[in-house]
Q: What sequence folds into this?
């Protein structure tokens, strides 16, 4: 087994470059190293100017998503050994503006996320003295899968529709909307539908399905979007047949 | 938070990539996707041929055999073979994706994908058999 | 919903058309496109086929078989043009060509089956 592996890392300095270029770094090839370990090695020993986001190293924080050999990956959960003998290409997540090196600008997602009201909407809150809102295991099971999202944005990087037209709400935000719609404590489905059922909300999705494939948390955003479409279509017919008082 | 991120003196210019026109050739799943979408052209082609066939049927016992003869031309045979392959691809991808859109729960547990897809295949075979039986005269 | 959008209607037609196409087109294509013309299976006689096609239920069946898959095509092809060729600026033209085509095809199917 070789003791070194080459990383080709995308570098972009907005003050000096007009577009990203690749720089090669030789790092130790260790079986227990993930891509993030290699990037940390570069930053510590080879080139302190390399910029990238990371935090927890355990697939929870969702900040180390990057393109590894053209595929969106959490770099903390992607082993170097899967790419032996190399070289391995590491780039910033696709479909987002690049601020510097491997750091993306994610305001667009944050705005969309807020728009779908990813919190429990209630008509009236009961006072704390009346205790918590109870939920059965079945009710939890209804939405649990969609609640596993860590906002890592790999699904946005995998989605060609979002890349082509970023008016599209995109996978994670719709899956999170669905997570709250399916929550027995929530009554916000209608408010969310008004935001999501316009053309750019959900209908732009052509079910490429790659968002689900790349999701490190098995959230299945593609499924969430299709289920949302089915619900929205049923609602549309209902409101068409019963124009008043149907809702 | 503003709707659109803006550059300021302190917020440097960023780099934006543009999606290539041929993005659907970039990765195997994208190629599969575009082939799945293109199957719709062969679906439409089938409908056009079927409409022509119905027209020939209505035009009388001379027109119909003439139309049958045209279906024997090599170009038509090739197009029909190609159509059949694409339509079968549509059928398979459609059945396999159905469980994603339709979630069925039995006693609070989500039915596994296979249990939703499999009845589709069984029904498909039964329906195809019935149609063939009716058309060929049983 | 302030302005009524017809997207859900067209999406439903696309979906139902997709189901119809998935279930019914393969066997039809196999029989009428290949097996009968190439003589793999003895085709039914003209008289039998005409009598069959004139049954009200079969007429309705053929109408569904022709119309809904056209709406399926229209929707998919529209988005294939949008995303595959990046021609969203030709929006109106594409909508006219696809959904318009499906509507014309439906009318033609209705006319042919009515006058059969």
A:
């Amino acid at each position: 087994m070789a003791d070194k592996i080459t990383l080709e890392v995308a570098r972009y300095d907005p003050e000096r470059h007009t577009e990203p270029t690749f720089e090669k770094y030789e790092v130790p090839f260790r079986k227990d190293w993930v891509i993030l370990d290699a990037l940390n090695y570069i930053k510590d020993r080879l080139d302190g100017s390399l910029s990238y986001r990371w935090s927890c190293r355990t697939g929870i924080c969702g900040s180390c998503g990057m393109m590894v050999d053209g595929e969106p990956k959490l770099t903390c959960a992607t082993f170097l050994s899967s790419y032996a003998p190399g070289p391995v290409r590491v780039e910033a997540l696709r479909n987002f503006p690049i601020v510097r090196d491997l750091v993306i600008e994610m305001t667009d997602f944050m705005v969309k996320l807020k728009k779908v009201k990813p919190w429990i909407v209630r008509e009236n809150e009961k006072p704390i003295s009346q205790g918590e809102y109870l939920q059965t295991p079945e009710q939890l099971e209804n939405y649990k899968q969609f609640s596993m999202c860590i906002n890592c944005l790999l699904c946005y990087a995998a989605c060609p529709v979002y890349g082509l037209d970023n008016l599209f709400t995109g996978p994670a935000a719709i899956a999170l909307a669905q997570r709250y719609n399916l929550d027995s404590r929530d009554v916000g489905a209608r408010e969310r539908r008004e935001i999501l059922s316009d053309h750019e909300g959900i209908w732009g999705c052509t079910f490429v399905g790659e968002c689900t494939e790349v999701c490190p948390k098995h959230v299945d955003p593609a499924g969430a979007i299709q289920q949302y479409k089915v619900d929205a279509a049923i609602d549309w017919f209902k409101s068409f047949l019963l124009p008043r008082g149907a809702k | 938070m503003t709707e659109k991120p803006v550059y300021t003196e302190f917020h440097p210019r960023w780099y934006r990539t543009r999606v290539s026109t041929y993005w659907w050739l970039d990765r195997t799943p994208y190629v599969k996707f575009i082939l799945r979408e293109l199957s719709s052209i062969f679906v439409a082609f089938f409908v056009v041929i079927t409409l022509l066939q119905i027209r020939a049927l209505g035009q009388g016992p001379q027109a119909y055999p003439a139309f049958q003869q045209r279906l024997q031309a090599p170009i038509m045979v090739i197009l029909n073979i190609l159509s059949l392959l694409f339509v079968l691809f549509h059928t398979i991808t459609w059945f396999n994706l159905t469980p994603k859109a339709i979630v069925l729960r039995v006693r609070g547990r989500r039915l596994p994908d296979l249990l939703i897809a499999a009845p589709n295949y069984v029904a498909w075979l039964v329906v195809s058999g019935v149609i063939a039986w009716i058309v060929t005269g049983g | 919903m302030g302005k009524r959008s017809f997207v859900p209607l067209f999406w439903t037609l696309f979906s139902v058309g997709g189901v119809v196409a998935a279930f019914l087109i393969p066997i039809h294509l196999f029989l009428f496109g290949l097996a009968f013309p190439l003589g793999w299976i003895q085709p039914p006689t003209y008289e039998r086929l005409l009598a069959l096609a004139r049954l009200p239920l079969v007429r309705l069946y053929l109408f569904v078989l022709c119309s809904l898959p056209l709406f399926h095509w229209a929707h998919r092809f529209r988005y294939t043009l949008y995303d595959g060729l990046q021609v969203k600026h030709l929006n109106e033209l594409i909508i006219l060509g696809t959904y318009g085509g499906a509507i014309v095809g439906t009318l033609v199917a209705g006319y042919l089956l009515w006058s059969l």
Remarks:
- Chain C has a mean pLDDT of 92.
